[in-house]
Specification:
Helix content is about 40%, strand content about 15%. By secondary structure, it is α+β, with helices and mostly antiparallel strands. A seven-stranded mixed sheet has the order 4-3-5-2-1-6-7, sandwiched between helices.
C-alpha cells in the first residue's frame, strides 16, 4: 500500500501565530525568551518609533544552517525533546510547544532573522507578510514556500555585530506602529520579566539602557506594607524600610514571592503608562498569569491596594499547563487550582493584617472586617480626618513627631468620645421630637427655670462674646432641656427599681455626658458606665419610638 504524508497548509500559521498573539509585549517576550533559552547573557532591544523598526539582538548560542532549518523553521520543534529541561548553562527552558516563534510574525510587515553559531557562517532569511498572505491565499504548502534572502550589506553589518555567536531579529513596518514611548516599554519589560532572579548574568537593554527592577521605583516608593512568601531573596523588597513587613511561611516551599500594598489605589498605576501593577504569577522568571487575583472570589476593598509577584517554578514540569498564547495558565489545571487555594488563604491573612496596620497609622482600613464595629470604625475614620489638619509638615520633623505622639496618646479616648457624642446627640434629639409629636407639656416649674435661669445665662454668654446672631437652630423650650429633664417628660414610668426607665439611667448619665460634651478625657470606669447606661437608655428610647 502507498504511504501518505501530512501536508501542512501555511494557513496554520495564522491560527497558531499571527492571529493568536495580539499583545506587543507578548511578542517581544517571545524574542526575549528565545534569547534566554539560547543561554544569552545580553539582549539588546533597539526601538525606532519614527521608522517603525524594532531590533532584538542577543549574544546567545546562535544557529547554524541545520539549526535554522530543522529547529527554528520547524513548527512544533521543542528544545525539551528527550526530557531536556535545562540549557547547557543550567537555565530552565522557557520554550515548550515550539510555536512561540510564530508570534514573531504577528506584529510587523517584514521580519528578518540572522544568526551565527560559533565557528559557523551567518545564516538567516526574510519573512515578508505580504508574500506570506499571498501564499496562504493560494493555498501553497509549506514545502513550496521559501524565505527571502537578506542582502549582502545587511549580512556584513550583522556578521560583525554578532561576533562569534548570537541572533538578531529585525521587525520592519510594525503594523500598529510603536505607540508607546520607550520609557513605557522599559517599565513593562521590568514588570513582565524577572529572569535576573534565576540568573543575575542575564541582562536586557532597551536603546542601550539596562532595564532593572528600578524602573518600578515609583510604585516601590509608595509601598506601605509587604508580606513575603517563604522569604524570597528579591532585591526589590530586600533592604527596604517599609512601614510593616511580615514573612509568611508556606507549606509549599517552591512557592515564593511577595504581596505589597500601597497608600492609595492610584499608586499602583505605573507612571507614564496605562498599566497598573497587580499580583502576577511568574514561572522561571517570566510572567505567566497577569492579575492572578481575578481567579479568586474575594471582593474586598484591600484588593485595589495590592500588587506583587508569586513565583511558582513547579508549574513547569512534564505537564504542559500554559495556554498557546503564552498569556495564561490552563484554568482547570489541578496544580494551578492548588496554588489558587493557597493564595486565597494567604489573602485572608493579608486582608486582616492590612486592616490592623492601616488603622494603626490612622488610615482607613477594611470596612468589612468584623474586628471592629461599624460605629468604632467610623469614629476612627472621623478622628483620622480631623487630626490631619493639625499635623505639622514633614519638613518640620521634630514638631511633627511630637504632635503625632500626642495624637496617638489621645486616639483611643477621642474615638470613644466621638462615637459617644454621636449617641448622645441622636438619642437626646430623638427624645425632643418624640415629646413634640406626643404634645407633652413642659411643667410650669421647668418653664420658669428656662425663662429665669437658662435663657438669660445663654443670652449673657452671647453678649460677652459679642454675638448678634442666633446660635441654636431650634430655640424652643425643649432645646434647653438635657437628658434628665427630657427623660422626666417622655417616660412616665415611675417604678425605677423593677422596670427600665429613662429617669433612672438619666441621673447617672448626665454628669458623664456633660464631661463628654466639654471634650474631657473620661476615665476607664466612666467610659464603662456611660456605655452601659447609654445601652439602657437606647433600648428604652426605642420602645418609646415604637409607640410614636
Amino acid at each position: 500500500m502507498k504511504q501518505y504524508n501530512f501536508n501542512i497548509s501555511l494557513s496554520i500559521l495564522n491560527h497558531l501565530g499571527r492571529n493568536l498573539y495580539r499583545n506587543f509585549i507578548t511578542v517581544l517576550g517571545e524574542a526575549i525568551s528565545n534569547s534566554w533559552d539560547a543561554d544569552a547573557h545580553n539582549v539588546y532591544i533597539t526601538i525606532d518609533r519614527d521608522a517603525m523598526i524594532l531590533i532584538v539582538r542577543d549574544d546567545g548560542d546562535g544557529m547554524d544552517e541545520s539549526d535554522f532549518q530543522n529547529k527554528f523553521l520547524k513548527i512544533g520543534y521543542s528544545k525539551r525533546k528527550n526530557n531536556n529541561t535545562h540549557t547547557a548553562n543550567g537555565r530552565p527552558y522557557i520554550g515548550r510547544k515550539g510555536i512561540g516563534k510564530l508570534a514573531l510574525l504577528s506584529c510587523a510587515q517584514t521580519i528578518t532573522i540572522l544568526s551565527k553559531k560559533e565557528n559557523s557562517e551567518l545564516v538567516g532569511g526574510i519573512i515578508d507578510n505580504s508574500g506570506l498572505d499571498k501564499a496562504i491565499k493560494d493555498d501553497i504548502s509549506s514545502d513550496e514556500y521559501s524565505l527571502g534572502v537578506p542582502n549582502e550589506a545587511l549580512i556584513s553589518t550583522y556578521r560583525e555585530r554578532l561576533c562569534d555567536n548570537g541572533t538578531v531579529i529585525i521587525f520592519e513596518g510594525l503594523k500598529d506602529g510603536i505607540r508607546n514611548r520607550v520609557e513605557y516599554i522599559g517599565k513593562l519589560v521590568a514588570l513582565y520579566f524577572r529572569f535576573s532572579l534565576k540568573d543575575p548574568s542575564f541582562n536586557i537593554y532597551i536603546n542601550e539602557k539596562l532595564i532593572t527592577i528600578e524602573e518600578l521605583n515609583s510604585i516601590k516608593e509608595k509601598t506601605q506594607f509587604v508580606w513575603i512568601l517563604n522569604d524570597i531573596n528579591d532585591p526589590y523588597i530586600k533592604g527596604r524600610n517599609f512601614k510593616k513587613s511580615k514573612i509568611l511561611p508556606l507549606d509549599n516551599k517552591s512557592v515564593k514571592g511577595f504581596i505589597a500594598s500601597v497608600e492609595k489605589p492610584s499608586d499602583i498605576k505605573i507612571n507614564g503608562t496605562d498599566e497598573k501593577a497587580t499580583i502576577d504569577l511568574y514561572v522561571n522568571g517570566r510572567l505567566r498569569e497577569k492579575d492572578i487575583l481575578r481567579h479568586i472570589p474575594i471582593a474586598r476593598i484591600v484588593q485595589s491596594y495590592l500588587y506583587g509577584q508569586v513565583h511558582f517554578d513547579g508549574l513547569d514540569d512534564n505537564t504542559d499547563r500554559f495556554t498557546s498564547s503564552r498569556e495564561g495558565v490552563v484554568p482547570d489545571d489541578p496544580k494551578f487550582k492548588d496554588l489558587l487555594n493557597m493564595l486565597e488563604n494567604i489573602l485572608k491573612t493579608v486582608i486582616n493584617d492590612w486592616d490592623i496596620w492601616r488603622t494603626e497609622i490612622n488610615q482607613d482600613g477594611d470596612q468589612e472586617n468584623s474586628r471592629m464595629t461599624k460605629k468604632q470604625r467610623k469614629s476612627k475614620e472621623l478622628f483620622n480626618v480631623v487630626v490631619e489638619d493639625f499635623i505639622p509638615p514633614k519638613e518640620n520633623d521634630i514638631s511633627r513627631k511630637k504632635v503625632e505622639g500626642w495624637i496617638k496618646e489621645m486616639q483611643e479616648d477621642a474615638e470613644f468620645n466621638l462615637s459617644s457624642y454621636g449617641e448622645c446627640f441622636v438619642s437626646e434629639n430623638l427624645l425632643r421630637k418624640y415629646i413634640k409629636e406626643k404634645n407633652i407639656v413642659v411643667s410650669q416649674n421647668i418653664q420658669n427655670r428656662i425663662e429665669n435661669e437658662w435663657k438669660p445665662k445663654a443670652e449673657k454668654a452671647k453678649q460677652e462674646a459679642n454675638i448678634s446672631f442666633e446660635i441654636k437652630h431650634d430655640n424652643s423650650e425643649l432645646s434647653y432641656l438635657d437628658m434628665d429633664n427630657l427623660a422626666s417628660l417622655a417616660d412616665k414610668e415611675t417604678d425605677k427599681i423593677k422596670k427600665a426607665t429613662l429617669r433612672r439611667d438619666a441621673t447617672e448619665y448626665k454628669p458623664i455626658r456633660d464631661a463628654l460634651a466639654h471634650t474631657s478625657r473620661l476615665t476607664a470606669i466612666a467610659k464603662s458606665r456611660l456605655t452601659i447606661t447609654y445601652k439602657n437608655i437606647k433600648e428604652r428610647i426605642i420602645s418609646l419610638l415604637n409607640m410614636a
